[in-house]
Recover the amino acids of this structure.
């Protein structure tokens, strides 16, 4: 089991620097996963910057016991060469991958900040 906090993930601190550090660590960790690894996120909040990418992962389990909270700082968000913002998570070419939680794991992309009207939010 690979525990995200034990390998250096910084929990319960909301800052751009922590979001970038946690995001870089998660990208490195995803790139190193081997078949039958379990990537565990303990019951804490890990603040992340977007641009998390993984490909060609096979027979891995992701255990979400806490929260992955993505930055709502649009100005800091990573962008591609055409200035288009990166996705929170971009996974492709996965095989036999399981996303699970024994409690209440949360992936929070801060959607209201991204998709609502600036300064207003949703009008429903």
């Amino acid at each position: 089991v690979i525990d995200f906090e034990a390998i250096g993930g910084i929990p319960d601190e909301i800052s751009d620097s922590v979001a970038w550090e946690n995001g870089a660590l998660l990208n490195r960790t995803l790139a190193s996963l081997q078949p039958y690894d379990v990537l565990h996120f303990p019951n804490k909040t890990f603040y992340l910057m977007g641009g998390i990418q993984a490909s060609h992962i096979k027979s891995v389990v992701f255990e979400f016991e806490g929260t992955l909270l993505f930055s709502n700082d649009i100005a800091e968000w990573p962008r591609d060469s055409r200035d288009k913002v990166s996705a929170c998570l971009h996974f492709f070419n996965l095989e036999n991958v399981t996303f699970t939680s024994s409690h209440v794991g949360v992936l929070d992309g801060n959607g209201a900040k991204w998709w609502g009207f600036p300064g207003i939010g949703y009008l429903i």
